[in-house]
Design a protein that fits this description.
The chain is mostly helical. The protein has helices at residues 4-15, 26-38, 43-78, 102-133. Helix 1 runs antiparallel to helix 4 (102-133). The longest helix is centred in the middle third of the chain and has 36 residues, at 43-78. It is elongated.
């Protein structure tokens, strides 16, 4: 049987991922510290800790892939038409605002996907913490199980 103390620890493991808004890499450090201290006390805590850490690592991996895909589109548009060989400082410097490039649209779309994914991530963390509070196990969707 899962005690209220175990439920609280599992809930705090999930909620500690929000510490990233105050501490750099807090979304990894918070759950990792809470999980490593309490993982021997209960299988319930161990399972929730692994899920929270696996989800954060998966989100980082997905963000790196999405960033790797989207950032070059903005850079290519920014430096489009810049002649590096015949660069004379800022003499006769002008910015041509014309028709947007399809690369800009694709990069903007990927940026919108990133924002939507961030909102979904926050919702999933809250759902996982509520499940932990109720004493239920929760598996994040699209999570790669690095810790088994």
């Amino acid at each position: 049987m899962v005690t209220s103390h175990q439920k609280n620890i599992a809930t705090f493991i999930h909620l500690s991922t929000f510490s990233r808004f105050f501490i750099p890499f807090g979304n990894f450090v918070g759950p990792l510290v809470l999980w490593s201290i309490n993982k021997e006390k209960s299988n319930f805590i161990d399972t929730h800790g692994k899920q929270a850490i696996n989800f954060q690592i998966s989100i980082l991996l997905y963000a790196l892939i999405l960033g790797t895909l989207s950032i070059p589109f903005f850079i290519f548009k920014l430096f489009n038409g810049l002649d590096v060989i015949d660069f004379n400082g800022f003499n006769n410097f002008h910015i041509n605002v014309g028709k947007p490039s399809p690369l800009l649209y694709l990069g903007g779309f990927l940026g919108a996907v990133a924002i939507i994914a961030f909102i979904i991530e926050l919702i999933l963390i809250v759902v996982a913490s509520l499940k932990a509070r109720d004493g239920e196990l929760y598996e994040y969707p699209l999570t790669i199980n690095f810790l088994k």
